[in-house]
From TrEMBL, chain A:
SUPFAM superfamilies: Ligand-binding domain in the NO signalling and Golgi transport. Belongs to the TRAPP small subunits family. BET3 subfamily. This is Trafficking protein particle complex subunit 6B. CDD domains: TRAPPC6A_Trs33. The lineage of its organism: Eukaryota, Viridiplantae, Streptophyta, Embryophyta, Tracheophyta. Gene3D superfamilies: Trafficking protein particle complex subunit 3. InterPro entries: NO_sig/Golgi_transp_ligand-bd (IPR024096), TRAPP_component (IPR007194), TRAPPC6/Trs33 (IPR037992).
UniProtKB/TrEMBL annotation, chain B:
Pfam families: Sedlin_N. Belongs to the TRAPP small subunits family. Sedlin subfamily. It comes from Stylosanthes scabra. InterPro entries: Longin-like_dom_sf, Sedlin, TRAPPC2L. The lineage of its organism: Eukaryota, Viridiplantae, Streptophyta, Embryophyta, Tracheophyta. This is Trafficking protein particle complex subunit 2-like protein.
Length: 174, 143
């Protein structure tokens, strides 16, 4: 039996989860909130990778596993593939998604849009950046969880220098 | 008839082991499963060069011992499934089918948010599902 979840529900859940952790549970400790959100993602990724690798042969190297994440895993999660994969062949992979679905429907609190001075503009922008990066700890955790279950210990960070494109940087630990 | 199934984690830690015999031979079956882990390692580290079958999850017959046959299966996440059977005339397709359904049951069990990865599987639902799969083994009518 295939069970499906509405996209909008997942979107709302993610937004609400990030909001709860940042503004309620760990309001004064953003690093701790980030770690907790990442940990939730890790568990989800860990479980999903078990399910989605069920019918396929074992991976022989890291690149093959990363390709699986880019193609099949991403398709299962977002109905699209990663748009661009770069690697330095020494353990660093950059997965770029030109239109990351989980960032599409994020809007910043309209109050911060009322910009009076240049200083306000910078503050608003910083706030927007930190809000967006908060929402990316969860997908980072998913990638890290999936890879670690496939036997690859790594660190995953997100890069949002050119929105709405978003890059996930995977650094494999030797 | 299947006499024993086992799930072994990636550090060779037992996650689930269940025997299906009346007699008191659990220890003996555990020993057989334990021995099979070496064979799995050997298979994985020295794969036969057989083209598309390379790195397949199903490892086939690991070894026959006394009147048992031991089959193995290794998932992408380095979790091993071991099957001990007394049937001497087993069809490969049946075993494959068994492992496929067993893997599905395993995935559902570890997707339980209350399951701690790397710890023993204590779910009663999983145990029931496994015993259903075991009972239907070899019956071609079962899908």
């Amino acid at each position: 039996m295939v069970r499906e979840v509405a996209e909008s529900c997942v979107d709302s859940l993610l937004t609400e989860m990030v909001a709860s952790y940042c503004n309620r549970f760990y309001a004064n400790k953003p690093e701790l909130a980030a770690r907790r959100i990442e940990a939730i993602g890790y568990q989800v990724g860990h479980q999903l990778s078990e399910r989605y690798t069920m019918e396929r042969p074992r991976f022989s190297d890291h690149l093959e596993a990363i390709k699986f994440i880019c193609k099949d895993f991403w398709t299962e999660l977002f109905k699209k593939q990663i748009d661009n994969l770069k690697t330095n062949h020494r353990g660093t992979f950059v997965l770029q998604d030109n239109k990351f679905p989980w960032l599409e429907r994020i809007s910043i609190d309209p109050l911060t849009d009322k910009v009076n001075s240049a200083e306000d503009a910078t503050t608003a922008e910083n706030k927007a950046t930190s809000t967006i990066s908060m929402h990316l700890y969860y997908p980072c955790g998913i990638i890290r969880g999936a890879l670690s279950n496939l036997g690859i210990t790594c660190a995953v960070t997100a890069d949002i220098s050119n929105l709405p494109a978003c890059s996930f940087v995977v650094r494999v630990k030797a | 008839m299947i006499v024993c199934v086992a799930v072994v984690g990636h550090q060779n830690n037992p996650l689930y082991i269940q025997s299906f015999t009346e007699a008191d031979d659990a220890l003996k079956l555990h020993h057989i499963v334990h021995c099979s882990l070496d064979v799995v390692d050997e298979r994985v580290n020295n794969p036969k060069k057989t083209g598309p079958l390379l790195n397949e999850t199903f490892l086939g017959l690991l070894y026959p011992i006394e009147n048992f046959k031991v089959y193995g299966y290794l998932t992408n996440t380095k979790v091993k499934f071991i099957l001990v059977t007394t049937d001497l005339d087993v069809k490969d397709a049946d075993v494959r089918n068994f492992f496929r359904r067993f893997h599905a049951a395993y995935v559902d069990a570890v997707s339980n948010p209350f399951h701690v990865p790397g710890k023993k599987i204590t779910s009663r639902t999983f145990a029931e599902r496994v015993s259903t799969i075991v009972k239907s083994f070899g019956l071609s009518s079962a899908v």
